Amino acid sequence: MWRSRTNRDRKTVVCIACGDSVLRSAAREYDKEGNRWERHGKRFEHLCKECYRDLCHQPRGELEGLLVDIEEHGLSQTEFLTRYFDTVTERYESPEERER
Ligand SMILES: [Zn+2]
After folding, report:
1. Helix (H/G/I), strand (E/B), else coil: 38
2. Per-residue confidence in pLDDT tens, the chain, 100 aa
3. C-alpha 70 – ligand 1 centre gap (Å)
4. Where are the domains of the chain?
């Protein structure tokens, strides 16, 4: 006999990042092997939506502006990458990292 869907969907899982209990139906599966499609014999870990977003969708809003800032006509690829690296380091490095 089939259990009702609602019953199954009410199951909760624990987010591996923040430890919150979330409804299984609202959680995101996290496979540490990076292959969510091979399901055989695996137990998935779970992330809540918030943590999943932090993990997989780094903010990229500033990337375009940053590229425009460092772009300059005639810049070689190496120069461009060096600038890019320097700018990113300068802008996003946390204070602790800077002290090293
Ligand atoms: Zn979480």
Report:
1. coil
2. 555 555 555 788 999 889 999 998 888 887 777 766 677 777 778 988 888 877 655 556 677 787 888 888 888 888 888 988 888 888 777 666 555 5
3. 36
4. 5-56, 63-99
Gap between the Cα atoms of 59 and 56, Å rounded? 9
Strand partners for 29: 46
**Nearest Cα residue to 22 out of 51, 58, 43:** 51
21-23/12-14 β-pairing = antiparallel
Ligand 1 mean position to 21 CA, how many Å? 8
CA distance 97 to 90: 11
Task: Locate 92 and state its tokens.
Answer: 């996003």
Q: How far is the CA of 55 from the centre of ligand 1 (A)?
A: 10
| Residues 56, 36: Cα–Cα separation, whole Å | 14
